[in-house]
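Record type: monomer structure entry
Structure origin: computed from sequence
Chain ID: A
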Amino acid sequence: MKYGFIKVAAAIPAVKVADCRLNQEAIDRLLKDAFEQQVEIVCFPELSLTAYTCGDLFHQQLLVEEAEKELDKLLKENVAISTVGIIGLPVKLGNQLFNSAVVFQNGKILAVIPKTYLPNYNEFYEKRWFASALDTDAKEVILCGQKVPFGTDVLLKYQNTTFGIELCEDLWVAVPPSSRHAVNGAQLIFNLSASDENIGKHDYLKSLVTQQSARCIAGYVYASSGFGESTTDLVFAGNALIAENGSMIASSKRFSFDEQLVISEIDIEKLSNDRQKNSAFQLGKRQIDSPDYRIVECDSLHHFTFSLTRNISPFPFIPVGKELDERCGEIFNIQVSGLATRLVHTGCKTVVIGISGGLDSTLALLVCVKTFDKLNIPRENILGITMPGFGTTGRTYNNAVHLIKTLGVTLKEINIKPACEQHFQDIGHSADIHDVTYENTQARERTQILMNIANKHNGMVLGTGDLSELALGWATYNGDHMSMYGVNAGIPKTLVRYLVKYVADSQVQSYAQNTLYDILDTPVSPELLPTDEKGEIAQKTEDLVGPYELHDFFLYYTVRFGFRPSKIYYLAKYSFGGKYTDEIILKWLKTFFRRFFNQQFKRSCLPDGPKVGSINLSPRGDWRMPSDASSRMWLEEIDIL
């Protein structure tokens, strides 16, 4: 394990019904392949050593004995293989036969887990051949000359990971064994299955696996029978699924005629953090009748060279694929509903918003327009204030004015330069010194204008600042930091761009699209410093604090999962794949943690605003941090990377 990741695999061998030797050879090949690919635990399908569809042949003494014989051969040939293997075979105990999972490593059997829930309906007749785990009190079994733990009350410990096992139908019942395993410490669940195909079943199966991984806050590795099983009445597609806390992270090619080894990594640290945060999770232990579990230790004395294979998105806040538009619509509606509720509650019919021609104020204005339309309030009651200053460019000014006019919002222009110049005189500051006083004077002058216009018109000031700016403290205290309701407070900068594009593509009249697209192409800037000699933006935010896509990545893994800087650095290097050098990532990572700690005082007195995703920095919601907390440990760890 490295950085909390454990490499797991679901193996789908091509089997031959009742040919234990051929099946053992297939399992052996895949086991060795898994070991060569640094897999730490690999799971095979249900009854994979005999094939699942043997029918009444399970009553044949020869089949059961040959299965044990081939298991013994598999163990002896893999003494040097430290990958933990989990295979399925019939195991005889006294006068009973159990559909079982056998866990082994380095040639030793670690445990035997019998199936609890035997399907005996429709195409399934398992009670004809097997006994349920509920039908015995046995705690041990002798298999291949080894006396080993037997039962469903067994969890296995591999390094810092605890895992449990269930078999096929066990997952489909009201309270699966994996639920008990999870509340008793199992972070990983392996399921040996033989689930046949019929119309619509696969989608339900995927939903079942992902939902159980979410309920258990666990990794879930599912391996089901494939090519070679009898097709007398059924067809098996070879489903290998790996899920992590509600997300499917790897899957097999269905209906393949070839053997498959589906590999991915489960982030145990992430799961542990989620369980730690979820105060209701451990209460499940009191509600579920669980046995006193026995813990079996796996061998950890091996030297794997770890490497990630799973996808780590560089944009963790951005939905992928076909979900993007659907999620953007949902997010936009959350913003609209939040603002609408506040307007109805206060009886307010007027909103004042500063429009800069940038992304954040554009999104806030679009939310406001949609809200007014839904509440049947005239758009004229939205007062769009453009306030040119020393750094305002013609591009952003024209975009702001055109957008306000196009959307039917009331336009008001107030040039802040005279007021700022007067203020400089009042406080004895030279307008030629372009320092923080020069910049913040403009931000606070704009906020004063918005607040006073709101008072004059009995309205409310709509905040435009986003989640990324709040994380970095990239806002002027009691300037753009302040409003009466902040609709973008839960939206990171990388997502703001997608939301504006979503609205441009789907919800705004075609004659407004060109303006929105140009806003999307405009560099992010507070425009507080004078323009360059060409009249263009001279002050680009990302040149000063770093790329927002990096900061959003850092923010996500810091707040959502509590990862330490070294792990975030590792994931960023892997995820951004050469787009940024290691030195650049490290530079902005240090900037992020320094600003994140130092600027907490601004987040401690945030205006109200809706939570949208899994992260929010409101002091009344997800994030409660002292304003004077020390960043020393985090920065020291970064210094030694």
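Annotation 1: The chain has two domains: 5-297, 323-639.
Annotation 2: The longest strand covers residues 84-93.
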